[in-house]
Amino acid sequence: MTTLTRTGKEFSTPTVSDYLKDSILLMLKDGKENAVTGKELAKRLGERGDRRIRLAIRELIHDGVPIASTVTGEPKGYFVAVNDSEAREYVGSLTSRLREDHERISDFERASKLKGARPGQLALV
After folding, report:
1. In Å, what is the CA distance from 15 to each residue of 58, 78, 104, 109?
2. CB-CB neighbours of 69 under 10 Å
């Protein structure tokens, strides 16, 4: 487990085995045209779901492996980015998600301060 500090609170994030990371590296192919889904990786590795796959991929990226993903077009999934175009496209998709998440946070904060949005509801913050 890795202990992180966020807003003054400590919490732990699970880590995955080197075996799982090595296995994923062997299965991932170079280039967007060879993308493979997290669900497929999990199935091949005998994992119940793709959560540990996502955690392992996050750790691999942290370790310096340029693993990107795509959710549009075919095939969808994870791949090792091999050129600037693939890297820029992935960074663009992450940036877009950040903007959408920021808007959702702002909308939620505004909504949670509204009193009486539903009958009997009090403001949350």
Report:
1. 10, 19, 29, 32
2. 19
**Residue 100, SS3?**
helix
Tens-digit pLDDT profile for residues 41-82: 999 999 999 999 999 999 999 999 999 999 888 899 999 999
**What domains does the chain contain, in order, with CATH numbers?**
7-82 (1.10.10.10), 83-125 (no CATH)
For the chain, where are the E strands, in sequence order?
2-6, 9-13, 67-70, 77-80
| Block residue for tokens 């996502």 | 54
pTM: 0.76
